[in-house]
Amino acid sequence: TGVAGTGNERSFIAIKPDGVQRGLIAEVISRFEKKGYKLVAMKMIWATEEMAANHYDDLKGRPFFPALVKYFASGPIVAMVWEGPDVIKTGRKILGATNPQAADVGTLRGDFCLTTGRNIIHGSDGPESAAHEIGMWFTEKECSAYSRSIDSWIV
Ligand code: RTP
């Protein structure tokens, strides 16, 4: 184990319906994987509007909420749990700013999309929401705890 120590923080990352339709699944997975994070759960699921509303419960009062719910339920998403040191905050950096026009080039949103309403991917914004979202989309049995032989080269 390297000096940075290990970290088993987990984040919920979802490729939204536009990301799936546009063929960006492998690109998203690749960026998290190459960074060194570990994929511990993944499934494709077509959320109902009820599931989408539940997922975005904290945004219920916003004017864009109905459109957001329709968008998120408009096709299958790829729901994932990624694990590793600081994955919540660093994962948000890999995603880039919510508004793709403000997102830095080199981030997923900065490189692959143009508008907030079609920003291809979701990532948990803190430890509480990560735990809440992981529990919402996955059972504990669906999240694998496993080690890889390369782990000691990463952490
Ligand atoms: P996400 O949860 O999807 O990772 O996005 P976020 O935390 O960066 O942004 P948040 O403010 O939580 O918004 C969630 C999603 O709602 C849509 N949105 N539309 N003004 C708008 O039209 C607007 N603002 C937000 C985006 O899809 C955003 O990712």
From TrEMBL:
Its cofactor is Mg(2+). It catalyses: a 2'-deoxyribonucleoside 5'-diphosphate + ATP = a 2'-deoxyribonucleoside 5'-triphosphate + ADP. ATP binds at K16, F64, R92, T98, R109, N119. Residues 8-145 form the Nucleoside diphosphate kinase-like domain. GO terms for molecular function: ATP binding; nucleoside diphosphate kinase activity. GO terms for biological process: CTP biosynthetic process; GTP biosynthetic process; UTP biosynthetic process. The keyword Translocase does not apply. Its EC number is 2.7.4.6. Keywords: ATP-binding, Kinase, Nucleotide-binding, Transferase. The active site is at H122 (pros-phosphohistidine intermediate). Belongs to the NDK family. This is Nucleoside diphosphate kinase. It comes from Tribonema minus. The lineage of its organism: Eukaryota, Sar, Stramenopiles, Ochrophyta, PX clade. The chain holds residues 66 to 220 of 223 of the full protein.
